[in-house]
Fold these 2 entries.
Entry 1:
Amino acid sequence: MDFHTPSSFEDASKRAAEATGLTRFLAGGTDVLVQMRSGTVLPDTLIDLKHIPGTQDITRTPDGGWRIGIAVSGARLGDHADLVADWPGVVEGMELVGSTQVQGRATLVGNLCNGSPAADSVPGLVAAQASVEITGLTGVRTVPVEDIPAGPGKTTLSPGDVISGILIPPRGAHGGDAYQRFTPRTEMDIAVAGCAISLRVDGDTITEARVAVGAVAPTVRLVPDAAAALIGSTLDDTAIDALVTAVRAACNPIDDKRGTAEFRTDVAGVLAKRVAHIAYSRAKGDAQ
Amino acid sequence: MSKIHVTTVVNGDEVEFLADPRETLLDCLRDHLGLTGSKEGCGTGDCGACSVTVDGVLVSSCLMLGVEAQGKRIATIEGMANGEELHPLQRQFVEHAALQCGFCTPGILVAAKALLEKNPDPTETEVRYWLAGNLCRCTGYDKIIRAVMDAASEMRGAA
């Protein structure tokens, strides 16, 4: 196995494109090392991205948004008080991934590129309208997070593409977001269904909303109909009913040992309702 | 590919070893440095028996490559006692009989020490969540939690 530690994303992209055989990028390694250990993925080339400047940094962008380095761990996200204040839903999604030990290494980009439909950090990023910066052979481009997953274990990235940063927009005034999932255990488990909502209020009225669901379709899914159910409402019972109906209509889950399709669809609606209330309280500045 | 020369600091001492890039930090600690206190339970980051800290952050050493340790500061169970004098966590584990076979104990001690450095006064719930990634098949956890709580209390009193 060839092991590289490039000092720029351009170099990382070039090395990945030139490599023959199986190539993997290494950041937190909490998926790659497990795959190597089990023999499901035995890379011929492994490219450690952590020597590239900025990969460990969380920085505020000039517009008031955030740029999160690709190697920032869940533990570091959770310790960043300003980021947590802006985007609690994004951070609480990531913090549900794995144990304390896994949190010490696991990253948002790794969770995204592993391509699991049940990735806990992805619905929050989608609801937040986050995007990823991709360095490829033809230059740098920015792509919405929801366009990266292509199906279980698959992404839309091409050979030579490497995600070089996560961009989260400015939170702005009177906004709030939240994420919840259902698991049989309270900790150290994979989502059976998950839902993230980000919204903005003017007084009691919701003016903007984005709703994303996880583990109920081949990819994490943005649900515009569910957002439409919230916008213009004061989160009254009619709006909640319309939200729940729209979320369940967007579900296309599998039956497996962790939950039936019927159960996942039902629970996704319940989670949407709970998450909407939390995001709404946070947007209004109530303690949550 | 040939082996890579790695220089790192383990328990305060600078060490060096030659690592195949596929070897985990756990492999390197055990096989190259002779530090066999960190255990391999699962090798896939599920059990916590290989817990160490890297630059103060708790990680599973089976989920990190040895070559990634270059220039880092690693702390393992071997660095926990001060000579013959046990760390309060270690002493409380003995006093509470918070271990039976002992295989998970080094990882739990390292994880618990990392918790108390971050949060010297944790609730029982916080201790249980923090240690959720450390599996013990013998004790049923209760004595472990009580030992960590008492060690925390003792360490706060001593400070």
Note: Residues 261-283 of chain A form the longest helix (23 residues).
Entry 2:
Amino acid sequence: MDVRSQVSMVFHLDKCIGCHTCSIACKNIWTDRQGTEYMWWNNVETKPGTGYPTIWEDQERYKGGWEKGNGKLHLKSTSKARVVANIFHNPHMPSMDDYYEPWTYDYQTLFNAPEGNDQPVARPVSRVTGEYMEIEAGPNFDDDLGGSPIYAMNDPNLEGLNSEQREQLFAVERLVFFYFPRICNHCLNPSCVASCPSGALYKRGEDGIVLIDQKRCRAWRSCVAACPYKKTFYNWHTGKSEKCILCYPRLETGQAPACFHSCVGRIRYLGVLLYDAELIDEVASRPDDELVEAQRQMILDPFDVKVIAAARKNGIPDDVITHAQMSPVYQFVKVWKIALPPHIEYRTLPMLFYVPPMSPVMASRENDTISHLSTDLFHDIDESRVPMQFLANLFGAGHEGKLRYALYKQRAVRLYRRAITVGDIDVETAARALREANCSPEEADEIYRLTSLCTFEERFVIPPMHREEAIQMLEDPHGHRQSVGFGFTAGPRRGL
Amino acid sequence: MSCREKRTRHGAAILTLFACFLLSSAGQAQEAANTFRQSCMSCHTIGGGKLVGPDLKGVEERRDREWLLGFIVNPSSVLASGDAYALKLKDEAGGVIMPTVVGMTRERAEAILDLIAGESQLEESQFAGLDIGDEPFSEADIERGRQIFRGDVRLANGGPPCLSCHTVEGLGGLGGGRLGPDLTKVYERLQGRKNLASWLLAPATQTMQPVYAKASITNEEILPLVAYLEDEAQIGTADTTTAQVIFLILGLAGAVLGFVAADSVWRGRLRAVRRPLVRGER
């Protein structure tokens, strides 16, 4: 057993209102520099939709992630030989247009436009070329366009849906969409790290955050092609690639990452998990339908005496183990089993988990009164307006089993709480639903509490980072201070 | 310092001056001979008959010294001035203009004219040129010439092989160098084997002269080279404009083929995603 710790995340999609506050918080802190205008380390997508960059989930085009061949895992985008052959031309690179061309506005014309018949407008100006441009796309151009024939109908997750299901999904009065906020998943088997010819990417030993060393990055952009979630970006100004850093400077000072901290719907949870690193290779090679369960098996019980002993042997501090025991992520993923990894079929073993959404209640407006068309508020999961197959493609590698379990449990908790708080559902029905969902009333209470009443401290259980010890693994801090001082003395620049 | 010592020193000084004078006049004659050998002999003989340029035996009987000096120092300006005699010479040389010799001054030209005058008196001048006869060359000569040209057989004095800068047709592969002119038809350009042999004896162009000044081609090597180039001139065709155009077209075709090959290698590359999607092409 090779126990390591990983700062992991859960996003509760039923709580997401699609306000993009997380994206703005991230942009203001990290990507408001020249060369990063087009990057959204955090973005919120509408599903069904094509996302950012456009149709990023279509790995037949983008070639992200891993694939299995002769019993071994291979990067889809590159290999040791191909990385040399393609080093000056990576054939699977998204173009700027597939992200979008970032722009600002020429606000001055609002003030100094000459007098004329028309209202002056602020023309859009490209933040790449500095010239006037026509806006063709944006990072959330399909926002709320759940029924769009261009965007929603080209969502790769619609694969396997029959035409009837598709029709339902896009029918008037049944139209449905939900939000899908994304950051770097800080995977256990990151393909970006594996693809880098310069060895510039690494996974931090103490907390598993995946980072790009700005001094070693040589702009080969292999990581951009290799990441199936398209969450590494190339900064054209510094000539280095960049990605979500999970706000590690904030984590190191005990603060939640900016997108977590600012989340209006309080959908985000963060905590440390202990996992067995020996199993990574084996788990990532499992057949598609076993992947979700296998990844859960890798995550270790932080209360298990043997796990604690092995963690101590690996140098994981006691207070990190304590925090692992309090981790909300452990509850969602391992205990309640209602949080699932996104697209685990890419085999990068993402460590950001999503609680899949129940279909929202459908409402319509008649004579200025809003009414629910559905009389059955807590309808059966299979009657959900979002087809199960769609969610299974997104969170279950195409297999419904784990997803059905998670949704039934959520439904049971709702019925149970409705029976207690409103009483229009009889207790017997609620109890039966709980039994069917393999959920005890105590567990339902806990799920309810962590979903609805959670405090800041319950959502973000940030382990102590012990940077002082982490640095000592690499060098003597006193010697380091005397020789160079702390930190970078200059920002990253093009060239060596 | 004593009187006697002073006198001795004066004597020594006078002796030195005298020695210098003697040496310098002998030196000047020697230098003129070297210059003639290096710069003139490729086109001129003294009493050996006409090569590309005229035989210079008794040249001062044909033109006065002043005209000759002007022409030697700067031939092209005399030609440019429209001098009738100079133009006639150019015609006789088949359009070849006498190159301006690097570092030629009036003084050196005088010394060369003195040399020519002196040599003209002799029965057999040392600058009569190389006579390699008129009988046809053997196959062996031609083959050996090819080997020398290609550098398979090294030049005895260590000079670089012709191939480094020149090409001839039928050399095979990528041909020879392109720094110097194509030598396929050089035999015809220089009008015969005697001219060609003289040229090889002391190549006079600005590029070749420094290269071969200290590593001259020996008489035993000149014969096969002339044989080879004579053979080439008979069977080969020079790299004409047509050939250059063909080369250009082949190059362009190669480039296009290269692009096609790259396109097929990277056929599966990621092209635009969003635009075709919005245009409804997916």
Note: The radius of gyration of chain B is 28 Å.
